Amino acid sequence: MLPSETLAQAYSEDLKTVYRPGGVVVLGGHYGALGLVRSLGRRGIPAVLVRRGEHIVASFSRYVNCVMNCPTSDNLVEFLVRVAGSAKLRGWLLLATTDETVALIARSADELSKDYTLMSSSWATIEQLCDKRALYKLAARLGIDCPWTVCPKNSGDVRNLDCEFPVIVKPAHREMSNPLTQAKAWQANNRDELLTRYERACKLMPRDLIMIQEVVPGGGETQFSYVALCLDGRVLASAAARRTRQFPRDYGRSSSYVETILDPGFGTAAIRLLHAVNMAGLVEVEFKRDPVGKYRLLDVNPRVWTWHMLCGRAGIDFPYLLWLLACGQSFVTPQARPGISWMHFSSDFLVAAQEICRGRLSLNNYLRSILVVRESALLAVDDPLPAIVDVPTSLYRWGRRRLQSLSRA
Fold first, then answer.
1. At 200, which CATH number?
2. What is the pTM of this model?
3. pLDDT tens, 2-48?
4. N or C: which end of the chain has fewer CB within 10 A?
5. 274 and 205, same structural domain?
6. Which of these, 187, 240, 204, 232, lies nearest to 325 by C-alpha position?
7. How many domains does the chain have?
């Protein structure tokens, strides 16, 4: 691997980036976006937040210079091009925080790069990573373990499927929003349940985007991530973590308790994968350890991950390193300290309460895990308002989704 200084200079020369971006434009309002604006804002880097959808907590941060609301009915690319001129954002670093915005930037890179600095992969790379059909095929060619997965053509294929239960029905990608993509997966414990869930999924999305996959047993103690900043397929900085608890428990939308660890070996597979797709920018590679000790590749998120603030506390501030790379500046590759914990308290409390009631987590162990937390998803002494507004806004989102599910039923 080349020194990071050489890599940063090469990237700057390739993009003809001979200036420092004026600031960052962050797409999204989730606590992953909050971590971005805090990391960069504490260093005096201006941040504009483009909010779209129901997540708003990041917009209450003192480190957000301006919040722009883009209605879901508007074309986001056209909106970004328009505000680049009207709000004087030309040349600013554009950062995505969701699967939808990652795909949008990648597909529209030629148009957006005229107004913004982009530090992300091409659509050819993003498609391989976000479409699990392509991802698992690539992993098989590279000799990386994955869960057993099939893509049935119709209900007849499902009826004749030779498999052990339980299995899950899951989408090949999550760009579209529907009950299945929001849940991430539906578990089926027998053939009748599988047919029912498959046929329901077919009403929500095209059949060729629906996958059936084995369930890799184990809870949070078996869930791991390799996170990295990449350039041309080379890893410039990385960390390993265990996603100890997630919300909801089985197929969580996001992690609720995460700890940095020493890489037990899955990083080698992740590096091989990232090199094969010529990855650029920030990325999270998710694994699950099966009962025989193999690390199975589950997902790849080619964007900032929700708990990235943990890495900053552990010694690797990924957003700031990405900023330095965008500015063509060198940096010494840091090392992450193991044993540092991060928590999203409200969602982790709900998960922990369920685990305690079911006898899978003791109250003492839960309390001990709270005491060693070094980084919060929301709480910060220098930026308190996001934590204050999180509970009422989360309750509002939960109530709205509950009403929508009842109306559909």
1. 3.30.1490
2. 0.91
3. 333 334 444 444 444 446 899 999 999 999 999 999 999 999 999 99
4. C
5. no
6. 232
7. 3
